Amino acid sequence: MTATFKKSVTITSVDKLSIDIYSMWIQDKEIVSAAKPGQFLSLYCKSGDRLLPRPISICEIDKKNHALRLVYRIAGKGTEEISHYTVSDRIEVMGPLGNGFTLEGKKAILVGGGIGIPPMLELAKQLSCEKTVVLGYRDVTFLDSEFIPYGQVYISTEDGSVGTKGNVIDAIKENKLEADIIFACGPTPMLRGVKAYANEHGIKAQLSMEERMACGIGACLACVCKSKDTDHHSNVKNKRICKDGPVFYADEIEI
Amino acid sequence: MTATFKKSVTITSVDKLSIDIYSMWIQDKEIVSAAKPGQFLSLYCKSGDRLLPRPISICEIDKKNHALRLVYRIAGKGTEEISHYTVSDRIEVMGPLGNGFTLEGKKAILVGGGIGIPPMLELAKQLSCEKTVVLGYRDVTFLDSEFIPYGQVYISTEDGSVGTKGNVIDAIKENKLEADIIFACGPTPMLRGVKAYANEHGIKAQLSMEERMACGIGACLACVCKSKDTDHHSNVKNKRICKDGPVFYADEIEI
Amino acid sequence: MNTKVNIAGVEWKNPITTASGTFGSGMEYSEFVDLSKLGAVTTKGVAAIPWAGNPTPRIAETSSGMLNAIGLQNPGVDVFLDRDLPFLKQFDTNIIVNVVGKTTEDYCKVVECLADSDVDMLEINISCPNVKEGGIAFGQSCTSVEAITKEIKKYAKQPIIMKLSPNVTDITEMARAAEAGGADALSLINTITGMKIDVHKRAFVLANKTGGLSGPAVKPVAVRMVYQVANAVNIPIIGMGGIMTGEDALEFLMAGATAVAVGTANFINPMATMDILKGIEDYMMKYRMEDIHELIGCVK
Amino acid sequence: MNTKVNIAGVEWKNPITTASGTFGSGMEYSEFVDLSKLGAVTTKGVAAIPWAGNPTPRIAETSSGMLNAIGLQNPGVDVFLDRDLPFLKQFDTNIIVNVVGKTTEDYCKVVECLADSDVDMLEINISCPNVKEGGIAFGQSCTSVEAITKEIKKYAKQPIIMKLSPNVTDITEMARAAEAGGADALSLINTITGMKIDVHKRAFVLANKTGGLSGPAVKPVAVRMVYQVANAVNIPIIGMGGIMTGEDALEFLMAGATAVAVGTANFINPMATMDILKGIEDYMMKYRMEDIHELIGCVK
Ligand SMILES: Cc1cc2nc3c(=O)[nH]c(=O)nc-3n(C[C@H](O)[C@H](O)[C@H](O)COP(=O)(O)OP(=O)(O)OC[C@H]3O[C@@H](n4cnc5c(N)ncnc54)[C@H](O)[C@@H]3O)c2cc1C
Ligand SMILES: Cc1cc2nc3c(=O)[nH]c(=O)nc-3n(C[C@H](O)[C@H](O)[C@H](O)COP(=O)(O)OP(=O)(O)OC[C@H]3O[C@@H](n4cnc5c(N)ncnc54)[C@H](O)[C@@H]3O)c2cc1C
Ligand SMILES: Cc1cc2nc3c(=O)[nH]c(=O)nc-3n(C[C@H](O)[C@H](O)[C@H](O)COP(=O)(O)O)c2cc1C
Ligand SMILES: Cc1cc2nc3c(=O)[nH]c(=O)nc-3n(C[C@H](O)[C@H](O)[C@H](O)COP(=O)(O)O)c2cc1C
Ligand code: FES
Ligand code: FES
Fold first, then answer.
1. How many angstroms separate the CA of residue C198 from the nearest CA in chain D?
2. Do A47 and B46 touch (CB under 8 A)?
3. Best of D23, D127, D138, D191 to mutate for ligand 4, by most ligand atoms within 8 A of CB?
4. What pLDDT does D63 receive?
5. Could you tell me the domains of chain D?
6. Is A86 at the interface with chain B, CB within 8 A?
7. Which tens digits make up the pLDDT trace of C107-132?
8. Do the bridges between strand C121-125 and strand C160-163 make them parallel or antiparallel, or are there none, so unpaired?
9. pTM, to two decimals
10. Is the dihedral of CA B157, B158, B164, B166 positive or negative?
């Protein structure tokens, strides 16, 4: 069992990456020592009327400086609140949570869609095999240049303003990318597309899933997804995204 | 009708006066122009679970700098939150509220008890007649030295550590203070004592009252006190502290 | 863009009114809000004779809510007619009087006194949890809801809005009973009975022990009840309970309310009614909606 | 300082348990809390067979509260006995199993299966608002509360705690019915039915449309109901609903609860149970109280 911590940590840097996308580094020795790509943190708001945690993926891990990067989009009141925090402010977090990606494969495609892109960055850094990166956006890109050191980066945009016009699968096809494994995080329709693509090509896929969470540690059963087989823990065809995921093999789950 | 404003204002100075007593200056042209001694402001918390205003008396008015001073005690979660605000933070306020003291009399005693002391300071500054000041504390004093420019200051403490041992009435009696009017703000037992004393001596008294408030402007009827006669507005023997007060003549109300 | 709604034959220029008891008779808030911009002003409860209300403390703060036990203090219907109604008539808005009583006769007396006045609608408060007699007692059984509605309808010349209590097992039964009794519209929710204890004083915070919970804390319960009632009756609903923003109001409209009332929010922001109206208008603009009726009951 | 309480013959080392459904079977939280320091652990609802629960989204945030419509997903009583019970037995605490069913027979089957196990108490959930059959339906009429309590008592070897629903007109009637049926203790409140609408998607946030409201938002309602019930029955009460701090727990004890359960707070602070216990102990220290019984029901 990996260690999980609930504590107040210090924000050491804040950047606005795009119109509603923010990047933030936090510092904490314990959490950072335990953190792996694909895991996430639960962030807690200060406003007393917002009780539930905001799950945010780990975007980068800097073990040397005990620092960890989170990149998030303002999606509602909680992330809006967090976007006002500044350097040296403290924030209550729990983590690292979930299982993270399993580092495997010889030739990988890392697929990130929209706000599912951040967790792919630390994965790109840690995954030592041959790899290409495919990033899907609606229009404005972010974080894409930071992937360049780790592999060839392909981009798709819905409006075609950058890269392939269409979605990430269109980009994979257009660029005839090959792999024995796909790692993906993004909106459900994208994950569904990746699963189908992997299936078709007989390759493995690890998908990072999303659902509304309360406990973040597997106790409340809020965040389940449908599993193909009866799950060992639940004894029904449900898996807990926070605890058994967020990363699942595509063939374990129904999406 | 005096103007009332609801707005966000800037905090221009913050001081800790005592273990749990804070002083804060805020700046706003409109509110300060309208403010009178004995009136109060409603302060609103930032934490979204705390809805109701915290009524705080005006302690000093600096018309030249459009500034206004509030002195408050940490009494619960709201004042605790406000005590963390720092210079240049903004705070949502409504005011000035209530009627304030009527400046009158030839020889006045200004009586403040505990956290009822702050509003007496601006009154002391504006009241031009002959006056003495009587301040009652449990033990540790605060704000007392600031009254010195405006009149002789007498102190009572419950434990006798400073001035008269006992309450403000004990101090008035011990020092044989005379007056044709008493202005008072403090806990209800003190106001009751002042009313009785004024009655005995056949002099007027203006008392500043306290009650839990919601609207702060006379609409919700949360903050009433009992009046001697049927009140013009309520058509029953109730007066609204926020709107018809907080200052009442002692003989208007039952306490 | 049309924001007009029609409640029981009365046209409102927009779906916003004030929740009874949170807006006095409009006077105090008129310093902050142009009352002519409201669909309607709903007054504090008015009784046949002046009521002194409960002892203080009458309110307490709770997480995202507040408890009140005002106890329906009011100057009585005569003062209302002589002073408050002429004041309200200066504005181009509908006037809804919230009616309270201790007995059915009390209610009917107020309704009669107002029958020939310039009041546009009557809201019958059979759901106040803070008075010993009357109030909520009338609102917690189907038979009494139907009976009092029927009786009041005999005296009323204006459309009757029955204000329902959330302190019931099945709100749809009460709604149907009111409809069966002849109610022209319904309003809900009144407050939920609650209590707060001061653990340091080891005493109730409210002099009345219990009070009515309002504010954002109750919104999910209110939206649920409005949805259930909208699917149970054929008369229009005025929804309320914790509306602080335009989006909150939209939840009630989408759940099936034809109009909404703003209560506790006035205490936090005296311009709340106007901000909420603007929020609705901005939403309609953003999603290019021509008519507010496209929103009413659109979530099934 | 004595913090021991006795609920229906079972001694708890302190008055703190976990609210069913918020603490799994203790496993996940045991990383944060030494379960031996709890008066009791109350498990997620356990049914006769595995239940898959509702579709997602199953939760939504509301002001100072949350809605859940988990739908009682659980692995069934067999897995509970084989896996979860042995885990819990490692700790020096009482084990309370929350029992759910769709029919009276279902409930009785679970109770029978647990009769000879090492479970200390059974909490019968007749108040879940999130399942189509059973659940709350049993908890909203006096006759059915009394009937199911009686029936379950026939099979139970452990003390029975009937868990009451707040979604009723008069909670004291339900409490008296449970007492008449032979309940050994009561727990309240379960969640209040609520709804949230996503105005941008124009859809319910929860797949189940409605969910149960919990958290600080409901605390005033919960304290009120505990107070009412404590004054209506002679069996002990486990109070819950929005307890986040020691002071919150004290409100329930002072209102008449003999013990308290911590639910939603666990999600915000996994150490909540321990912090709350410490809050109570600090309070007793501050006011020089020797025995927690000085607090129970001290506000009248
Ligand atoms: C495992 C995981 C990893 C994530 N990683 C990231 C990331 O790296 N960057 C990023 O920007 N976003 C990420 N998200 C989505 C992020 O959690 C939501 O955008 C965020 O919680 C919205 O909060 P809010 O207060 O702004 O919105 P509100 O709508 O005000 O939130 C209300 C409630 O709904 C929940 N909620 C709303 N949207 C989502 C959502 N999409 N997923 C889960 N809960 C939601 C909130 O947590 C909160 O409890 C992740 C989600 C999960 C489950
Ligand atoms: C007209 C008036 C003038 C005041 N002037 C001052 C002042 O200058 N300095 C000062 O320190 N205090 C003053 N008070 C008291 C001050 O309002 C309370 O101490 C403060 O509201 C407590 O808030 P809290 O959040 O810390 O306490 P909490 O207990 O958390 O507050 C909960 C709720 O109760 C209300 N409340 C609690 N105590 C009081 C109280 N004594 N009076 C009114 N409402 C209360 C709060 O406003 C809030 O709505 C004044 C009160 C009134 C009515
Ligand atoms: C201080 C206060 C006084 C109230 N007085 C009345 C009243 O006189 N008559 C009535 O029908 N409802 C009364 N209510 C209930 C409100 O009209 C409304 O139903 C309830 O507060 C829910 O709306 P809100 O959450 O927006 O406040 C009162 C509520 C408050 C907070
Ligand atoms: C996610 C969640 C799941 C719940 N599951 C159950 C359950 O299985 N059985 C039950 O009796 N109550 C269940 N409840 C209700 C709680 O036990 C408790 O009665 C309620 O949440 C009020 O307490 P709180 O405000 O402290 O959470 C659940 C509550 C939540 C939030
Ligand atoms: S959030 Fe509680 S089980 Fe996943
Ligand atoms: S606070 Fe509303 S009338 Fe005084």
1. 7
2. yes
3. D191
4. 98
5. 5-55+71-195+213-294 (3.20.20.70)
6. no
7. 999 999 999 999 999 999 998 777 76
8. parallel
9. 0.97
10. positive
